[in-house]
Amino acid sequence: MTNPIRVTVWNEFRHEKKDEEIAKNYPDGIHGAIAEGLNQVDGIEAKTATLDEPEHGLAVHVVANTDVFVWWGHMAHREVSDEIVDRVHQRVLQGAGLIVLHSGHFSKIFKKLMGSSCDLKWREADEKERLWVVSPGHPIVAGIGEYIELEKEEMYGEHFDIPQPDELVFVSWFQGGEVFRSGAAYQRGAGKIFYFRPGHETYPTYYNEEIRRVIGNAVKWAAPVDRPARNFGNMDPLEDLPWYDRKHAVTEGFQ
Length: 255
Known about the structure:
This protein is of the alpha/beta class and 255 residues long. The chain is built from 7 helices and 9 strands. It has a domain at 5-118 and 183-226: Rossmann fold, CATH 3.40.50.880. Strands 2-1-3-4-9-8-7-5-6 form a 9-stranded mixed β-sheet.
């Protein structure tokens, strides 16, 4: 039997404590709703972690035993410890996946991996969002039609200050006229990253079956590949080189 993909769903868990309407949408927190959806998918085992837990719920053993991180943040990005960000960053470079949702675009971990401001335009006006599939053969959109339509969502608009995606999977249109690159896939080191736009805290977006399907597909796509660890640094030749002197082959500064 294949081992399940081990997912850690991370959330600030602040809005749900401060706003009664948001708490009604997400009585178990945004992280709880996302994890609930993922645990309905065969081959995925999702647990949760939140900002106010010790080490933000991302202790060394948790990070080491996570195959894919799902990240939601909004009002407390600055409170996330740089040490914890570095810990997750290294795990992603080593091969773990990272799914960044909605306002997680401004999280320390996403900005560190993107190397840009990740800024954008926004407006909260109960607008319809239509997420168009622009990469119909991508595994992240398995089981999804031409588009996903959400009756009400927060608008995000271009320009979205991210690097050119390796693969663009969704482009959103909003009722007010804006468009947005709402599904962007990247590789950093041995890890895969997917940014997925929907999920403003005042709307019950993470109960939508199509949104849940995309997140589940993204987790499977981003899961680590089973292969030996990568090697770096000075290496002996694979073939025989009679003139090669191992003692003098180490380049200064890279020992």
